[in-house]
């Protein structure tokens, strides 16, 4: 998968890619729409194949491009990267110097990949990647000359997989170490007796934090009617202790690393809490400090 230009990658198109493309194209009302769907399908499959070769997880059948009704109505060429976001994989025909993005395309893409087709459609060239944050033109046009290497994509993948995506909690997807509170608190009777009851539309998860002393962290997430989530953090003593360790600190940091709020345990506290709100795509970190030990968790809403 190489080419003479630094960030252009040649990717073969296997027969099963063409079978998918032919099946999806046959479902369309006219030949022009069928051609669009055919090329979109091959473009998405090629990027999926390349990322799979690099052991990057993809969910080929979860994108709008793999949804029969959506691809019939819209010009979609998206590839889902679980826990990361969607890539837009746009076909580039010979002689084209720019990619005009469809006006109906949603704005939740992490970036755009240019996929150049050969005449025989037996392989494609991945021309490069442009992060969505660098999109400056309106209407949305990606100049082929703007496309970069795939290094920024891999940086985005690495960064986002380290983040805990709280919107996934709303859909029932949780990280393994964040458990239902009743399981985490089952062996901590004093903590469970003081645990707050969540409201009916809240999602609650808890985890064990091992510092110099064990504590239990509870996060309660409550969606509102808008794009705002209310968040409550509580820390309880672990190991069936009565009180929190003195001087234990709970700190919330914004995306830039600035302290937004903090709380510190006193000698007789059996729990402490912070409450705040976050908007869609807002990032924050939770920092727990006890003596020389620091634990940090990063989140995105």
Automatic annotation (TrEMBL):
It comes from the Bacteria. InterPro entries: DUF1822. This is DUF1822 family protein. It comes from Nostoc favosum CHAB5714.
């Amino acid at each position: 998968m190489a080419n003479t230009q630094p960030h252009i990658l040649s990717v073969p198109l296997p027969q099963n890619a063409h079978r998918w493309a032919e099946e999806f194209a046959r479902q369309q009302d006219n030949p022009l729409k069928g051609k669009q769907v055919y090329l979109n399908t091959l473009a998405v499959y090629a990027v999926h194949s390349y990322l799979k070769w690099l052991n990057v997880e993809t969910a080929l059948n979860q994108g709008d491009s793999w949804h029969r009704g959506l691809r019939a109505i819209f010009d979609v060429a998206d590839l889902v990267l679980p826990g990361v976001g969607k890539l837009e994989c746009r076909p580039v025909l010979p002689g084209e110097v720019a990619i005009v993005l469809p006006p109906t395309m949603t704005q939740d893409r992490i970036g755009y990949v240019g996929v150049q087709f050969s005449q025989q459609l037996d392989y494609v060239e991945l021309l490069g990647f442009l992060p969505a944050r660098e999109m400056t033109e309106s209407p949305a046009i990606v100049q082929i000359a703007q496309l970069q290497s795939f290094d920024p994509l891999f940086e985005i993948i690495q960064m986002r997989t380290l983040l805990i995506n709280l919107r996934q909690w709303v859909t029932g997807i949780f990280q393994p170490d964040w458990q239902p509170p009743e399981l985490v608190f089952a062996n901590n009777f004093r903590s469970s007796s003081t645990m707050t009851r969540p409201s009916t539309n809240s999602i609650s998860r808890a985890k064990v934090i091992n510092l110099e002393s064990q504590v239990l962290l509870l996060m309660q997430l409550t969606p509102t009617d808008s794009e705002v989530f209310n968040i409550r953090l509580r820390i309880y003593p672990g190991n069936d202790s009565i009180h929190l360790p003195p001087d234990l600190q709970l700190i919330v940091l914004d995306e830039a690393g600035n302290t937004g709020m903090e709380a510190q345990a006193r000698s007789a506290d059996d729990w402490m809490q912070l409450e705040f709100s976050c908007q869609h795509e807002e990032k924050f970190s939770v920092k727990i400090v006890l003596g020389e030990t620091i634990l940090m968790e990063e989140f995105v809403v």
